[in-house]
Amino acid sequence: MMITIKCPKCGTGSSLSLIESTYEGPYRCWKCRELFSIKIEGNELKSCEPLSEEEFERRQQLEALKAKLRKPPKAET
Ligand SMILES: [Zn+2]
Fold first, then answer.
1. How far, in Å, CA of 21 to CA of 23, rounded?
2. How many angstroms separate the alpha carbon of residue 24 from the centre of ligand 1?
3. CA distance 1 to 7
4. For residue 42, how far is its CA from the centre of ligand 1 (angstroms)?
């Protein structure tokens, strides 16, 4: 599933591939490097808020952690 996000700052569109129709997390514009916190529901962009560099990194770490938790741990042999 692909969704196009339009950067509120420079207006550049960017495609984001999603696993689910709902997404909430950090997003960085490839062109102006502006950071945003976005929320997608039902394949539609519901909210887009500017994010600070610090907050962006914090959220990314959180997302990575969530992704880790979603997968069952591999059994070590
Ligand atoms: Zn931009």
1. 7
2. 18
3. 19
4. 23
DSSP 22-62: -EEEEEE-TTT--EEEEEEETTEEEEEEE--HHHHHHHHHH
Query: Which helix (H) or strand (E) element contains residue 9?
Result: none
Token pair belonging to 47 = 């909210």
- Ion ligand 1 neighbours (CB, 5 A) are 7, 9-10, 12, 29, 31-32, 34
Digit-coded pLDDT (tens) for 16-70: 888 888 999 889 999 999 999 999 998 888 999 999 999 989 988 988 998 888 8
Per residue in 12-22, pLDDT tens?
999 988 888 89
